[in-house]
Write a structure and sequence with these properties.
The complex is a heterodimer of chains A (232) and B (273). By secondary structure, chain A is α/β, with parallel strands linked by helices. Chain A contains ten helices and ten strands. Chain A is globular, with a radius of gyration of 17 Å. Chain B folds into two domains: 10-84 and 115-137 and 245-273, no CATH class; 138-182 and 206-242, no CATH class. The radius of gyration of chain B is 25 Å and the shape is flat. The chains are: A alpha/beta (232), B mainly alpha (273).
Chain lengths: 232, 273
């Protein structure tokens, strides 16, 4: 489904954000990207949607991510930013969720139907007319997820979906993610969530992949976790 | 992602003589240069050349690339050019009528042309010098220098906050644009109306402007509270302010002032002849 080959990205100040990343994600796979702050998880996710373009290649299905195909690939890979405030930019929840569909030229009836379905899926039915600005953090996170769910992407790339949520909000998001059928890539520090719903984990540190394999093996290796800042 | 917009916007880090110079001296130099250039008479070409020489020395001392300095100053010069250019077509002083084809004629004023070129040269000199000084001085140092030169602390505080919040605004705009970009996708296949209608795009942009205002207000408020929590009371403090000007630095400022007066006298003498 997604092939990342020798991907590197350098920040404007010359620091290496990610270095020679090689990863393959299969269709329907649920993978967690974990690692300390600054490991390059967010940078990697931003490459999947073409927000950042580093050296190397990213293929989604049969398509290589480049300037010509980036908009096609964005329809296939839905990206949810870590802060929902970065994701939501419209005056109402409906406008925000419908944005991607209107941009794609989907007809009105389908838009209304898909927006309602996406909001229901994230547990926010009937919130179409609310202002995103007035929502709680948990609600914003749910609406942010709805903004990409309604576009029915094949891949969902989520950055820290449970960060900053109270236990109930966190549980709600975990249940929601567990029930999704799409290929799921999540950057997170929430190892409990990783244990619960992700069979495969990729550990990143200092821009490199240091482990890629079964979650159960990684989480049982306390030395590995400690060495890469995942245990206190 | 660390994007050092605030620093990149004006200041260019170097270890040059001009960078190392005290901000107060640079402000005095800039002030004298701007006032002198503004007071120079029309058509004082020799003095313009001398002022250009000073500019060149400052540029060399700053060790900044010429392309970088020219790009910034010429960009600022464009609106001035657009305002001044129509003046040369006024029927004023000595002028000629030009009729390139029948039924179309315009006048070209030589008096105005000299005035316009003089103003353009002077405005470019001023802008270019300001660009060099600001590129060689951190904004914080400029504020400290302005404060030391007697600008009321309320004004320096407002300038400082404006500068700070300008980049808060820019970073918010970048985030909004990124979010919009991430969901601006197309579906494979024909017959899809890409990008939505123009009114809808305008509506989205309007919504983004509203969101930007609300978020910027919120964020600015949080920044201000954080500043207050660390003792900010509207006064900018820095080590540089505590040290008084040395006799050599005082002498430098006096020399700069005298050089400015000298230039003006020379220009007026030449104009009188």
């Amino acid at each position: 489904m997604i092939n990342i080959n020798d991907l590197s990205y350098v920040y404007e100040d010359g620091r290496m954000a990610i270095e020679h990343i090689k990863l393959h994600f299969s269709c329907g796979e649920k993978v967690a990207l974990v690692g300390p702050n600054g490991a390059g998880k967010t940078t990697l996710l931003l490459h999947l949607n073409g927000i950042l373009c580093g050296q190397g290649s990213v293929r989604v299905g049969e398509e290589e991510l480049d300037d010509r195909r980036v908009k096609l690939i964005r329809a296939r890979v839905g990206l949810v930013f870590q802060s929902p405030d970065d994701q939501l930019f419209s005056a109402t929840v409906f406008d925000d969720v419908a944005y991607g569909l209107i941009y794609q030229g989907v007809d009105k009836e389908t838009i209304h139907e898909r927006v309602a379905r996406a909001l229901e899926a994230v547990g926010m039915p009937g919130s179409q007319n609310r202002s995103p600005y007035r929502l709680s953090l948990g609600e914003k996170k749910r609406v942010a997820l709805a903004t990409v769910l309604c576009m029915q992407p094949e891949v969902l790339a989520l950055d820290e979906p449970t960060a900053g949520l109270d236990p109930r909000g966190r549980r709600g998001i975990i249940n929601l993610l567990a029930g999704l059928d799409q290929t799921l890539l999540i950057a997170t520090h929430d190892l409990e969530m990783v244990r619960e719903i992700f069979p495969r984990v990729v550990i990143m540190d200092a821009g490199r992949v240091v482990y890629d394999g079964p979650t159960s093996t990684a989480l049982a290796d306390t030395e590995l976790l400690r060495a890469h800042g995942l245990l206190g | 992602m660390p994007v050092d917009l605030e620093q990149r916007a004006s200041y260019e880090r170097r270890d040059s003589i001009l960078h190392g110079c005290d901000a107060r001296i640079k402000i005095a130099l800039l002030f004298v240069y701007l006032v002198t250039t503004a007071l120079l008479p029309i058509g004082a070409w020799v003095v313009y050349l001398l002022m250009g020489g000073i500019l060149l020395i400052a540029a060399v001392l700053s060790e900044l690339p010429a392309s970088f300095l020219l790009k910034r100053a010429l960009l600022l010069e464009v609106p001035i050019l657009l305002v001044l250019l129509p003046q040369i077509f006024l029927k004023s002083g000595s002028y000629v009528e030009i009729s390139p084809w029948q039924g179309f004629a315009f006048s070209l004023s030589f008096t105005r042309l000299e005035r316009v070129v003089s103003l353009l040269v002077r405005s470019w000199l001023s802008l270019q010098f300001a660009v060099i000084i600001t590129a060689a001085t951190r904004f914080e140092d400029l504020l400290i220098g302005l404060r030391a030169c007697g600008l009321p602390h309320l004004l320096t505080a407002i300038l400082g906050l404006m500068w700070r919040y300008l980049f808060v605004l820019v970073s918010e705009v970048q985030r909004l644009q990124q979010a919009r970009q991430a969901r601006s996708s197309v579906l494979a296949g024909p017959n899809w109306r890409l990008g939505g209608s123009l009114p809808w795009r305008a509506q989205v942009t309007g919504g983004m402007a509203g969101a930007l205002m609300l978020r910027s207000l919120d964020r600015s408020q949080r920044i201000y509270q954080a500043m207050q929590a660390r003792g900010y009371d509207g006064e900018i403090r820095a080590e540089a302010v505590a040290s008084a000007l040395t006799p050599a630095q005082r002498l430098q400022i006096v020399a700069i002032l005298l050089a400015g007066v000298g230039m003006l006298m020379l220009a007026n003498l030449m104009a009188a002849q």
